[in-house]
Design brief:
The chain is α/β, with parallel strands linked by helices. It is built from 16 helices and 20 strands. The strands form five sheets. It has a seven-stranded mixed sheet, with helices on both faces. A six-stranded mixed sheet has the order 9-8-7-10-11-19, sandwiched between helices. It has a three-stranded antiparallel sheet with strand order 5-6-20. A hairpin with a 2-residue loop joins strand 1 and strand 2. Helix 2 packs antiparallel against helix 5, helix 8 packs parallel to helix 9 and helix 10 crosses helix 11. The longest helix is centred in the first third of the chain and has 20 residues. The N and C termini lie far apart (about 75 Å). Bound molecules: NADPH dihydro-nicotinamide-adenine-dinucleotide phosphate. The site of NADPH dihydro-nicotinamide-adenine-dinucleotide phosphate has 30 residues, from helix 8 and helix 9.
């Protein structure tokens, strides 16, 4: 596959280049080879993207929701038809194995477009009857111009999880992918045009954080949706606040996964593997603090090690591979730093812990036991394939420890006791909880964080309220009264 894009940016329905910007090499994580180059957006490119999007938005908002939705659903169909090629590209961009990308990336993007395309025709306000025959009605209106800023772990999915509700509500979007994964969003922009989306409604500009910062602080931008880390979230939220802009913040996590003695062993081991090693552990909602009750601990660790031996680590483009490289050398080094800290702070390295030699950024699936709540590996988001196993005996105690974090993105509970499952999830301070499951993210269900993990929700009907605003219109049927 030719991975070099036609140009760096996609503005007003066409590829645009400006090689005065800082060059960004696209690196294939499986080999470390440079597979493309884009240029960070210059101020001229940013201006072009904003002017184009502004010019296109109001006509788009005036179409009926059904007309807008039809285009989104057409884009979903094209994405599904091209799933294989888009998945290969996603694998080049991120290093995630094709066995994953074929079922979790473009397909999830298509789901979002299909879902919000379907909803677009039923976005209405309400009629509010009042005293004396007066009445009011509300109109659900677009916000205007939205900026989407993406992380590198799910570039296609993030691009569409933001674009689908934004466009359904009548907004335009400028999307800035992570500099680490610039390729996939450009393909989505091409597909939108093919599906009939008018030029300017979905522009892609590449760039480092400073391009995101320039977009966020521009007064012509009405809303910012960021997927990224908490430190970046703080900066972006503050910049958006200065302009009183709407925000959605999808940020990091350090989520608990609680395994009670009575859990089904195979299921809880599957859950822990999925919650720590899918996408080589680079998932915001991962359950990286695995609390295991004393009675099941030995059996859990034994079975976990046996199952980890089945990981097929290798060429991510080979469909037999189920564990790929980390996204970048920088991320690999950061995770190795956490592993070193884990050992220094007294955790026991049960398995893994080393870089795998060869060209790419491969790291062994890693499990620490005897982890305590105060250790860095139990407190900080690692964003790599590192599971920390913590011991517990008492239900109330584990709930308190699970909640003792600034994050609140996700949490999981494995138990066959129905009452306990619900009792515990009622107490967990997380935007999403899983019972005997982990990391499901269907588009019909709201997704987002509590506490430092974020603001607002993506997916589901809930996302509509974050990409639209209400106007109230009061109608007097009789004569006006006034004091003089
Ligand atoms: P970063 O926070 O480093 O970057 C996120 C995006 O913000 C990138 O596009 C980045 O650009 C851009 N950016 C950086 N600085 C600024 C700024 N000052 N103003 C505007 N934009 C800026 O996150 P990563 O890309 O490293 O992604 C990993 C993080 O994302 C993890 O913390 C993870 O938990 C979180 N995440 C959250 C998800 C959720 O839905 N809750 C889902 C997936 C990931 P550049 O890359 O060019 O620096």
């Amino acid at each position: 596959m030719d991975t070099q894009p036609k140009a760096s940016h996609f503005i007003h329905g066409a590829y645009v280049e400006d090689n005065n910007g800082t060059p960004i090499d696209v690196i294939y994580p499986a080999t470390g080879a440079v597979i493309g180059r884009v240029y960070s957006a210059t101020p001229e490119i940013i201006e072009q993207a904003i002017v184009s999007a502004k010019s296109a938005q109001s006509a788009w908002a005036k179409l009926s929701g059904t007309e807008r939705g039809r285009i989104l659903r057409r884009a979903a169909d094209i994405i599904r038809e091209r799933n294989y090629d888009l998945s290969v590209l996603e694998t080049y961009d991120t290093g995630k194995p094709l066995s994953e990308t074929l079922c979790a990336d473009a397909t999830s993007a298509a789901d979002a477009l299909e879902y919000f395309g379907g909803l677009a025709g039923s976005l209405t306000g309400e009629h509010i009857p009042l005293a004396d025959g007066n009445w009011a009605y509300t109109r659900r209106e677009a916000l205007g111009l939205c900026v989407g800023i993406g992380a590198w772990n799910y570039p296609t999915q993030i691009a569409c999880w933001k674009a689908a509700p934004a466009l359904a509500c009548g907004n335009a979007m400028i999307f800035k992918p992570s500099e680490t994964t610039p390729l996939c969003a450009l393909k989505i922009a091409e597909i939108f045009v093919e599906a009939g989306l008018p030029a300017g409604l979905y522009n892609v500009v590449q760039g480092l954080g400073e391009v995101g910062a320039a977009l966020v602080s521009d007064p012509r931008i009405d809303k910012v949706s960021l997927t990224g880390s908490v430190p970046t979230g703080r900066k972006v939220y503050a910049a958006a606040a200065a302009g009183m802009k709407h925000v959605t913040m999808e940020l990091g996590g350090k989520s608990p996964l609680i395994i009670f003695d009575d859990a089904d062993l195979e299921n809880c081991v599957s859950g822990a593997i999925l919650a720590n090693f899918y996408s080589t552990g680079q998932i915001c909602s991962n359950g990286t603090r695995v609390f295991v009750q004393a009675g099941i601990k030995d059996a859990f660790l034994k079975r976990l090690c046996e199952r980890l031996d089945n990981a097929v680590i290798g060429d991510p483009q080979d469909e037999a591979t189920n564990f790929g490289p980390m996204v970048s050398l920088r991320q690999l080094e950061s995770v190795l730093g956490f592993i070193k800290k884990g050992e220094e702070e007294g955790a026991r390295l049960l398995t893994g812990g080393n870089r795998i030699s060869g060209g790419g950024f491969y790291l062994q699936p890693t499990v620490f036991t005897e982890v305590t709540d105060d250790m860095s590996i139990a407190r900080e988001e690692i964003f790599g394939p590192v599971m920390s196993v913590l011991d517990f005996t008492d239900e109330a105690d584990v709930i308190a420890r699970a909640n003792a974090t600034e994050f609140g993105l996700a949490a999981g509970v494995f138990t066959t006791d129905l009452s306990r499952a619900h009792r515990v999830t009622d107490e967990l301070q997380s935007g999403t909880c899983f019972i005997n499951s982990y990391n499901d993210a269907p588009v019909e269900v709201p997704f987002g964080g509590m506490k430092m993990s974020g603001v607002g929700r993506e997916n589901s009907k809930e996302a509509i309220s974050h990409y639209s605003q209400l106007k109230s219109v009061f109608v007097r049927m009789g004569d006006m009264e006034s004091p003089f």
